[in-house]
């Protein structure tokens, strides 16, 4: 009887062991199948700043003659929501941070052009890397395109040993990639800006796959690129003092004055000519003295540009012409440089309601300068 019980226990142990081995083999086979399925798919995946955006694409990414194309709808979604087609010059205009570009135009010359298929416009994003300050890697073997913002922090590490990359923070999760010892990987911090969570670290492999490995498997974790911080002229609330006077009057003499609670002054230095809308100024010696007074008190100078003299029709003509908008913007930039001005206050009033979108374009085009 004792022998029978002993045999039964051994049989149970063997069955349990076989079941465990079966589960392990099943997981390994499924993991291999998952990797093969990923590689066999014709669909190109897109990773933007270590986040898989493939499912959010409105149109598939295209690659033609080594050039990577993204639809204008997806460009709006991920990079520039104000991108638009300018009918006057039949070009696509995009702005980002401190840059502006026109596709197929002279503002940003590219070796590739926008293409159109079934009413969908595609832009050569791989030719616009310096516009959006990005790095693009087309990993053909894994059919993944990786786009990294060069303004964001990047952390890298090496693997201590051969390791399987898991889809989730679980040992029995699907394997999305396998990497060897001393392989370089990108480390992805969690929402709390931490590298490790419950002993796991999210990474991006050299094949572009996103997944998790045990933190203990990583070595030489190093920040290879610091995040760029934007500098602001004004920290906190803007307290602006309007110094309004006619364009026919010189700037007031405020020598020795201190205006409490002010960090920005806005004198009426500039106006649009009533005949052709060109930018005029009444800065003169008095205006230069005003700028020096403001700067000596720590005030930023953001002069206003008025369209009161030009009127509604001249203003509309400028807003509805891409070339005239660019001419005005260039004049503003030159005036700012000439007089050491910190910014501009656009004071356009009495405009047609139909011109509101064109006015928005003017502001958007002006800001990157």
Overall geometric form: elongated
Global Rg:
30 Å
Q: What strand line-up does the widest sheet have?
A: 17-16-15-12-18
| Computed structural class | alpha+beta
Tally of helical segments:
7
Measured by DSSP, the beta-strand proportion falls in 25-35%
Q: Mean pLDDT, nearest integer?
A: 87
List segments where confidence is low: pLDDT < 50 over at least 5 consecutive residues.
105-109
Q: Can you summarize the main beta sheet?
A: 5 strands, antiparallel
Please give the structural blueprint:
Blueprint: H1 2-40, E1 45-48, E2 51-52, E3 62-64, E4 67-71, H2 72-78, E5 84-86, E6 91-96, E7 99-103, E8 115-117, E9 120-124, H3 129-132, E10 134-139, E11 144-149, E12 154-159, E13 163-166, E14 175-179, E15 184-188, E16 200-204, E17 210-214, E18 218-225, E19 240-243, E20 264-267, E21 270-272, E22 279-281, H4 284-296, E23 300-301, E24 304-306, H5 311-319, H6 322-339, E25 345-347, H7 356-366
Parallel strand pairs: 1-11, 19-20, 20-23, 21-24, 24-25
Antiparallel strand pairs: 1-2, 3-4, 4-9, 5-6, 6-7, 8-9, 10-11, 12-15, 12-18, 13-14, 15-16, 16-17, 21-22
Structural commentary:
The chain is of the alpha+beta class and 369 residues long. The protein has helices spanning 2-40, 72-78, 129-132, 284-296, 311-319, 322-339, 356-366; strands at 45-48, 51-52, 62-64, 67-71, 84-86, 91-96, 99-103, 115-117, 120-124, 134-139, 144-149, 154-159, 163-166, 175-179, 184-188, 200-204, 210-214, 218-225, 240-243, 264-267, 270-272, 279-281, 300-301, 304-306, 345-347. The strands form 7 sheets. It has a 5-stranded antiparallel sheet, with no helix packed on it. A 4-stranded mixed sheet has the order 2-1-11-10. The protein has a 4-stranded antiparallel sheet with strand order 3-4-9-8.
């Amino acid at each position: 009887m004792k022998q029978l019980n002993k045999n039964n226990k051994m049989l149970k142990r063997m069955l349990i062991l076989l079941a465990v081995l079966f589960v392990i083999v099943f997981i390994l086979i499924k993991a291999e199948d998952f990797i093969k399925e990923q590689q066999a798919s014709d669909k190109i995946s897109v990773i933007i700043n270590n986040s898989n955006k493939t499912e959010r694409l409105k149109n598939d990414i295209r690659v033609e003659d080594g050039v990577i194309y993204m639809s204008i709808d997806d460009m709006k979604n991920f990079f520039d929501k104000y991108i638009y087609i300018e009918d006057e010059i039949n070009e696509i205009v995009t702005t980002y941070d401190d840059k502006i570009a026109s596709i197929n135009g002279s503002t940003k010359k590219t070796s590739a052009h926008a293409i159109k298929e079934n009413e969908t416009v595609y832009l050569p994003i791989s030719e616009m890397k310096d516009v959006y300050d990005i790095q693009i890697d087309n990993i053909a073997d894994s059919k993944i395109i990786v786009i990294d913002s060069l303004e964001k922090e990047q952390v890298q590490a090496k693997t201590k040993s051969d390791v399987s990359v898991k889809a989730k923070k679980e040992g029995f999760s699907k394997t999305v990639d396998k990497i060897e010892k001393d392989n370089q990987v990108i480390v992805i911090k969690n929402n709390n800006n931490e590298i490790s969570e419950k002993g796991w670290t999210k990474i991006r492999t050299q094949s572009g796959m996103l997944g998790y490995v045990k933190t203990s498997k990583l070595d030489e974790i190093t920040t290879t690129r610091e995040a760029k911080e934007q500098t602001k002229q004004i920290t906190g609330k803007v307290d602006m003092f309007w110094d309004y006077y006619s364009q026919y009057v010189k700037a007031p003499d405020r020598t020795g004055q201190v205006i409490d609670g002010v960090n920005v002054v806005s004198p009426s230095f500039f106006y649009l000519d009533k005949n052709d809308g060109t930018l005029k100024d009444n800065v003169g010696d008095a205006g230069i003295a005003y700028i020096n007074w403001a700067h000596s008190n720590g005030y930023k100078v953001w002069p206003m540009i008025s369209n009161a003299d030009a009127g509604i029709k001249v203003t509309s003509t400028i807003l509805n012409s891409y070339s005239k908008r660019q001419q005005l913007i260039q004049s503003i930039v030159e005036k700012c440089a000439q007089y050491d001005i910190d910014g501009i206050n656009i004071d356009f009033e009495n405009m047609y309601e139909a011109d509101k979108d064109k006015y928005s374009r003017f502001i958007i085009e002006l800001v990157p300068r």
